[in-house]
Amino acid sequence: MLTLTDLSKLTHKSLPLVTGIVNDLVQDGYVVEHGLAPSTGGRRALTFLLNKEKQKFIVAVSVDQLITTVVIYDMLNNIQVEPAKIYLNLADEQTSMALFISFITGYIAKSGISEEQILGIGIGMPGVINAKLGVNHTFFKIKNEGNLKNYLSDALKFPVYIDNDSSLIALAELKFGEGRNMKDVMVVNIGWGIGLGMIINGDIFRGHSGYAGEFSHIPLSQSNKLCSCGKRGCLEVDTSLLVLVERAKAEIAAGISSRLEQLFLDDSKLPGEHFLIAARDGDPLAVSILSDAAFLIGKGLSTLIHILNPELIVLGGRGATAGKIFMAPIQHAINEFCIPRLADHTKISVSASAERSELLGAAILVVENCQFN
């Protein structure tokens, strides 16, 4: 229940613009008047609510290299249908697309929500993505660099909008999270890889071709190991969760004692999930490995601070559930490699929504691009 003045302040838009938009929504039946606000000394203002009789819902999907999660939100960002997830290996190009479509279709069918009430489907996924063209050059590739957005729209029978996972995490932080009311923010997506969502001058920055933010491919590694991108020396080969798990397994095989030895035998969760749990619980091996990776991430962030001078860096994504462990070594690296005058003006925080940010960002993507009817 908000007044026009409330909406103007929340959206940072002029009162005449907000008034015009709200009047249109009232005329179309999406918004209804809800009486007068309490008196503040002058004329009491009208308040407005979304019309429940014309309620719309949004299907939000987060895809990473191994896990796909889907949830349905209402227009107030409340979860309408509980999230569901499937273990889906994107590297398996033969089966991943068909399984994905079947999973999303089945989830929507079981939700009990009519097709007419669904506004659209927002999908965040890893890879080199041009959101404007609807193309993912890394995963779910369509022949001849075809349009993935259109392909999924046809297959799922709903409007579909896709974007890079890190950009959507940044979008969620910008609208509802740590980056709200800020102009220049870097959002690090810590997951199976290391992504970066960039907020510059208050907007998501995607670069000339839409591919900005490939932070994990900054050449900072001393390893000669080949990266998934086909190059050597990428930050990802020392810092991704997949690499940290392999390092933990090697240390255990060499005789290092760790709770991870038992956790890795439990296949109800992926090894990376077990690794983060062990780190949060203070397992010495997991904490040590994670701290080494965090220091390298901090070294990379020092480069970003020097180039972009952000006011805030947010640690987000799956790995942010162990964000407190990342903080100290990242700060250590920034203190060591960054010019103090620049570092002193950049705050570092851990996302409060962690894994949920990408889903929320996917929902925002739909609302910002859809056409109400």
Q: What integer is the average pLDDT?
A: 91
Instruction: Count structural domains.
Output: 3
Helix-residue proportion: 25-40%
- In the CATH hierarchy, the architecture of the largest domain is 2-Layer Sandwich
Strand tally is 15
Shape: globular
Query: What is the fold-level CATH name, i.e. the topology of the largest domain?
Result: Nucleotidyltransferase, domain 5
CATH superfamily of the largest domain: ATPase, nucleotide binding domain
Number of helices: 13
Topology diagram in text:
Blueprint: E1 2-3, H1 4-11, H2 15-28, E2 31-36, E3 46-50, E4 57-63, E5 67-74, E6 79-87, H3 96-111, E7 118-125, E8 129-130, E9 135-136, H4 148-156, E10 160-164, H5 165-176, E11 185-190, E12 194-200, E13 203-205, H6 236-239, H7 241-253, H8 260-263, H9 271-280, H10 284-308, E14 312-316, H11 323-337, H12 340-343, E15 347-350, H13 356-369
Helix pairs in contact: 1-2, 5-13, 7-10, 9-10, 10-11
Please explain how this structure is put together.
The chain is of the alpha/beta class. It folds into 3 domains: 2-54, Arc Repressor Mutant, subunit A (Orthogonal Bundle); 57-168 and 358-369, Nucleotidyltransferase, domain 5; 180-352, ATPase, nucleotide binding domain (Nucleotidyltransferase, domain 5). 40% of the residues lie in helices and 21% in strands. The protein is built from 13 helices and 15 strands. It has a 5-stranded mixed β-sheet, with helices on both faces. The chain has a 5-stranded mixed β-sheet with strand order 13-12-11-14-15, sandwiched between helices. The chain starts with a strand and ends with a helix.
